[in-house]
Specification:
There is one protein chain. It contains 13 helices and 29 strands. The chain is of the alpha/beta class. The chain folds into 2 domains: about 375 residues, ANL, N-terminal domain (Rossmann fold, 3-Layer(aba) Sandwich), CATH 3.40.50.12780; about 100 residues, GMP Synthetase, Chain A, domain 3, CATH 3.30.300. α1 packs antiparallel against α2, α2 crosses α3 and α6 crosses α7. The longest helix has 17 residues. The model has no long low-confidence stretch (mean pLDDT about 95).
Length: about 475
């Protein structure tokens, strides 16, 4: 089967069965024929608004059919979708729009970004526009998700892969014409990427507005779902359901449960392996930048307990010590990786620069070791980035927002262990005259998306930074964890 531009994929599956379900959200299902026609018309509307081949289109829509329609309309014009949270405050969205320079922002009030054209959620194209096939175009970059940055400003991670796929190629263990459940937010790279590749393979996508533990099980059973991606927080909440609730749903059709985005406690993984069977529980480790990745099945994990798997055939990995020396088996150091296609071939940043060491090796900030068989084990995070509920939170970004509050001299943001979320965000605030927590929370709500706002605050009675202006976040975190004991 030849590779097709991703914008052509709906037509490919519609030609096979136009009435088959393509996407379901709540009580609405759209067929492949409807999806192709609606995105043809929407693409023409975007074109009239100024979207051209090679452009970025910033898409800030909630989970739903409209999100997928916006992305495919963008691809049909040879442009690149740039997903963001629909709940971003204006200030944070402004920074992203400034970096991406999109020709269109979907999900923002008209005029919200100066001369950049904006349309709100619920936009419907003029019914007089044709819904027939458009000229074939291929996006130079297939996706451009955002990430927080260590500088406190966001960055955009542009995939260097073109927007084209073979619809009959089985990849990521996603088979052809099955059903896939999407419980995670589509502005995150994992749910975005895996559900889009599921669509290219003719999968029926069932997308949830937001995750709910029992509703996830109900939808898995109702739609006879074959493939689902979860994060450990979701796994924990499902496992915490009463046993009779957890076991009343028929999950016999579920072939792959893939988890990623955060470390999974060994005990929790073991429970899922006991519940579903090892052949159905899989784990992926890697970054949005796609320099490298690992994959491990439950069967392999039982033989290499705690491992995240071997490096994929497309990459190589090594462990590096503090002195820059490549370490041997079972020696702990920083995990570095690079694609076999060459450094810088998988992505490029907008708004940041990549950090490489000699030979084009890159780290995504993890500490770990490899065994004699080449299996990777993660020990800890090396960077100050906080993983909370599968989301990456950069302390500098949150601290910058806190420090802008009247009366705050400085702040330190750390992650504290949490059984449910993996970590919760805790802010230590250096404010000589004290602070009003409610007022500070209101201030942050204007500047940060909700999941980045600290869950708890603490007033510091001494400066948080040393004479060089450095924060010792790891020490602050260790002190507070010890105080809990």
């Amino acid at each position: 089967m030849p590779i097709l531009p991703i914008g052509r994929i709906p037509a490919f599956w519609a030609a096979r069965d136009a009435n088959a379900p393509a996407i379901t959200h709540d009580d609405r299902t759209i067929s492949w024929g409807e999806f192709d026609a609606r995105t043809n018309r929407l693409a023409r509307a975007y074109e009239k608004l100024g979207v051209k081949e090679g452009d970025f289109v910033t898409i800030g829509l909630p989970n739903g059919i409209e999100f997928y329609e916006a992305c495919f309309a963008t691809w049909k014009l040879g442009a690149t979708p740039q997903p963001i949270s629909a709940r971003l405050p204006q200030a944070e969205r402004e920074m992203i729009v400034e970096i991406a320079a999109p020709s269109l922002v979907v999900g923002a009030p008209p005029g919200a970004h100066g001369a950049v054209v904006c349309i709100e959620a619920g936009f419907e194209p003029d019914a007089s526009l044709p819904d027939t096939e458009l000229p074939e175009k291929t996006a130079r970059y297939w996706k451009a998700p955002t990430s927080g940055g260590s500088t406190g400003r966001p960055k955009i991670i542009v995939s260097n892969d073109i927007g084209a796929f073979d619809p009959l190629e089985v990849r990521l263990q996603q088979e052809i014409g099955r059903a896939q459940l999407v419980p995670g937010p589509l502005y995150h790279n994992g749910p975005f990427s895996f559900s889009m590749t599921g669509i290219t393979r003719g999968n029926h996508i069932i997308v949830m507005t937001r995750f709910d533990a029992e509703e996830t099980l109900r939808l898995l059973a109702e739609h006879k779902v074959d493939w689902v991606m979860l994060v450990p927080t979701m796994m924990h909440r499902i496992w915490n359901l009463p046993e009779d609730v957890r076991n009343k749903y028929d999950l016999s059709h579920l072939r792959i449960m893939l988890h990623l985005a955060a470390p999974c406690p060994a005990w929790l993984k073991e429970k899922w392996i006991e519940w579903l069977g090892p052949s159905r529980v899989h784990e992926l480790y890697g970054g949005t930048e796609a320099q490298g990745a690992t994959w491990i099945s439950g069967d392999e994990w039982l033989l290499h307990r705690g491992s995240v798997g071997k490096p994929a055939e497309t990459c190589e990995m090594k462990i590096v010590g503090e002195d820059g020396r490549t370490l041997g088996p079972r020696e702990t150091g920083e995990v570095y990786m690079r694609p076999l296609s060459g450094p810088g071939t998988t992505y490029h940043y907008l708004g940041a620069a990549s950090k490489q060491i000699d030979g084009g090796w890159e780290s995504i900030g993890d500490i770990g070791w490899m065994d004699e068989d080449g299996y990777l084990y993660l020990a800890d995070r090396h960077t100050d980035m906080i993983l909370a509920g599968g989301a990456n939170i950069y302390p500098a970004e949150v601290e910058a927002a806190i420090d802008a509050f009247a009366g705050v001299r400085s702040s330190a943001v750390i992650g504290l262990p949490d059984d449910d979320m993996g970590n919760t965000i805790h802010a230590i605030v250096d404010a000589p005259e004290g602070f009003d927590e409610a007022a500070l929370r209101a201030h942050l709500a204007e500047r940060l998306v909700r999941y980045k706002i600290p869950k708890s605050f603490e007033l510091a009675h001494e400066p948080l930074r040393d004479d060089a202006g450095k924060l010792r976040r790891s020490a602050l975190r260790a002190e507070r964890i010890k105080a809990r004991e």
